[in-house]
Specification:
heterodimer; A: mainly alpha; Four Helix Bundle (Hemerythrin (Met), subunit A); 9 helices; about 75% helix; B: about 55 residues
């Protein structure tokens, strides 16, 4: 009984319908939280006593870095589910994660660089945290390249799933790199559950940005996964209805 | 007005702070555009495939 929802999600028509129902809620929640967090972080939060106004980059850098690893973990877990249970929907979700994850890994690296220049005096350092994050970007790019290079869908799913699962070992390395090795990058200050080292006036907008980012990622992945399902499905009356509905929504001419 | 300009200057970090926020907003908007386009293209592919199947029958 408890696993019924999981088995139901394996059905493409069911997933397509459920995802479509969730999309507006997730999207609008992300927008409201994102705008509130952004205004709070940029205008209302106090300056940092050491970094002045420069620390505000944190409000886009930390959520982007979180999204880069969270999306990769989602990609690897759904790839594993797809491999073990031969679930097409899971492979669709996995494939949908890569472009989003790659773009936010790029944002995390770029905003980190923009923060590093005034604070550390350098745009880039071959530091364990930065290097492992760069490796994550290459993993995403490799995954997308591999997927587009293999024509046979089943084979592409299997090979890309293996790459995603092997690459997930990089996620804990990114997180613990600042503790395992000497690093220019600061140690975690938000993810210390129970005792974050930030005052509430700075922490609350940051948590809002984390939540907004996570909801945004869910929205984008579900939107892409719905498209991926349409691309993979061949027959079914539900497909006819879904295509008719999506054409009506996007205003395409028949 | 002066308070607004002071805020805009972000101490001496305006270039770094606004570039970071600008880049992030641009990537968010691009992701929305890409996801919508990907869904539209997939719908079109599925619609054509169904139309071909109908014409074959």
């Amino acid at each position: 009984m408890t696993w019924l929802w999981f088995h139901k999600l394996a059905s493409p028509p069911h997933f397509y319908r459920i995802a479509g129902r969730w999309l507006p809620w997730l999207g609008w929640s992300a927008a409201v939280l994102g705008v509130t967090g952004l205004v709070w972080g940029l205008v209302l939060a106090p300056s940092d006593y050491q970094q002045g106004e420069g620390y505000r980059i944190l409000y886009v850098h930390a959520p982007s870095a979180w999204l880069s690893t969270f999306t990769y973990t989602t990609m690897a877990v759904s790839a594993a589910v797809g491999l073990v249970w031969r679930m097409n929907v899971a492979h669709s979700v996995s494939a949908s994660c890569a472009p989003l994850g790659a773009s936010f890994t790029f944002v995390a690296l770029a905003t980190g660089s923009l923060w590093g220049k005034p604070m550390w005096g350098t745009w880039w350092e071959w530091d364990p945290r930065l290097t492992s994050e760069l490796l994550l970007l290459f993993l995403y790019l490799g995954y997308m390249g591999l997927r587009s290079a293999i024509e046979d869908q089943t084979r592409a799913d299997r090979v890309c799933a293996l790459l995603a699962i092997v690459g997930v070992v990089n996620v804990p390395i990114i997180y613990y790199s600042v503790e395992w090795w000497n690093s220019l990058h600061q140690a975690p200050s938000v993810m210390k559950f129970g005792k974050p080292t930030m005052p509430a006036s700075m922490l609350v907008p940051l948590l809002m940005m984390f939540a907004a980012g996570t909801l945004f990622a869910a929205t984008m992945v579900l939107m892409r996964a719905r498209g991926e399902i349409l691309r993979r499905e061949r027959v079914g009356t539900w497909l006819e209805a879904a295509v008719g509905e999506s054409v009506a929504l996007t205003g395409e001419k028949r | 007005m002066e308070a607004f300009l002071t805020w805009l200057a972000m101490g001496k970090y305006a270039l770094y702070v606004w570039s970071s926020f600008g880049l992030t907003v641009a990537v968010v908007l691009l992701n929305i555009h890409w996801a919508r386009r990907s869904f539209r293209d997939a719908s079109e592919v599925a619609r054509r495939r169904l139309a071909m199947r109908r014409s074959d029958q």
